[in-house]
């Protein structure tokens, strides 16, 4: 009989190459999570109008390559290692400071249409892409910057965000998830600095090998929040 073990994944982290608030280069981020006993990370770098503008290059073709570069580098380095590197994003629209974790979108979709995403609004974005990815509001009750969006435009909410530099309002988010059990509830460290590493994430009984696995596990609720 094989021993049951859990596989741990970080669903919310930032590398310094893309996220200006991040202090950990992609390699260092992955190394710290591996050392902390995690089995993988989903890179969720900020994707906003100002980030898009600041990315090297003038065309979307150049900028999208720059945005994906750290992910591609890590993915290549860790391929076949048993440590899973995945790509998500933390999207913000121009309308307010709410952030949305995007999981499971296809590379082709991002390459073709990603340029427009920060210029959309949540209702339109959700109607357009609800079948193409999971749209999870990050720290919906974070004090002074965020507010909960109507849950009809979301697949889920981040109920545990352990970024130590904010009052994240996790109790309120947890309550919303309990009252609406169909919502996907996630946990994430929102890791920007060494001290943020391995604050939260999810654990499941099967290893994740691709975006489809992540989406399935989140939809089925076959995980626990760390
Ligand atoms: Zn940040
Ligand atoms: Zn974040």
Overview of this structure, please?
This protein is globular. With 226 residues, it is of the alpha/beta class. It is built from seven helices and eleven strands. Strand 8 (156-161), helix 6 (170-179) and strand 9 form a beta-alpha-beta unit. The protein binds zinc ion (2 copies). One zinc ion binds next to loops.
Task: Describe how the helices and strands are arranged.
Elements (H helix, E strand, L loop, with lengths): L6 E7 L12 H10 L4 E4 L2 E2 L1 H6 L5 H19 L5 E4 L1 E4 L6 E5 L3 H7 L8 H8 L4 E5 L17 E6 L8 H10 L4 E5 L13 E3 L6 H10 L3 E2 L1
Parallel strand pairs: 1-2, 2-4, 3-5, 7-8, 8-9
Antiparallel strand pairs: 1-10, 5-6, 6-7, 10-11
The site of one zinc ion has 5 residues, from loops.
Q: Work out the number of β strands.
A: 11
Round the mean pLDDT to the nearest integer and report it. Answer: 97
Span of the ends, CA to CA: 26 Å
**How much is the radius of gyration in Å?**
16 Å
Given the structure, what is the number of helices? 7
Global geometry = globular
CATH H-tier superfamily: Metal-dependent hydrolases
The low-confidence runs, each spanning 5 or more residues with pLDDT under 50, are none
Strand order within the widest beta sheet: 3-5-6-7-8-9
Keywords:
five-stranded mixed beta sheet; 31% helix; TIM Barrel; globular; alpha/beta; binds zinc ion; 226 residues; 7 helices; six-stranded mixed beta sheet
Provide a short characterization of the protein structure.
The chain is 31% helix and 21% strand.
């Amino acid at each position: 009989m094989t021993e049951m073990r859990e596989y741990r994944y970080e669903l919310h982290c930032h590398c310094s190459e893309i996220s200006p608030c991040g202090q950990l280069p992609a390699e260092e981020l992955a190394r710290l999570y591996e050392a902390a006993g995690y089995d993988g990370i989903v890179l969720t770098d900020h994707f906003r109008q100002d980030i898009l503008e600041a990315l090297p290059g003038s065309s979307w073709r150049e900028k999208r390559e720059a945005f994906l570069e750290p992910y591609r580098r890590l993915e290549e380095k860790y391929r076949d290692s048993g440590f899973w590197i995945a790509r998500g994003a933390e999207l913000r629209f121009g309308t307010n400071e709410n952030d949305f974790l995007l999981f499971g979108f296809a590379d082709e979709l991002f390459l073709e249409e990603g340029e427009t995403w920060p210029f959309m609004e949540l209702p339109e974005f959700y109607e357009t892409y609800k079948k193409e990815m999971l749209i999870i509001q990050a720290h919906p009750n974070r004090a002074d910057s965020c507010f909960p969006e109507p849950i009809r435009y979301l697949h889920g909410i981040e109920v545990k965000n352990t970024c130590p530099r904010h009052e994240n309002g996790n109790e309120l988010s947890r309550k919303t998830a309990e009252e609406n059990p169909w919502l996907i509830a996630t946990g994430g460290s929102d890791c920007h600095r060494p001290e943020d590493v391995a604050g939260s994430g999810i654990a499941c009984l099967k290893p994740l090998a691709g975006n489809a696995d992540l989406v399935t596990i989140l939809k089925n609720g076959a995980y626990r929040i760390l």
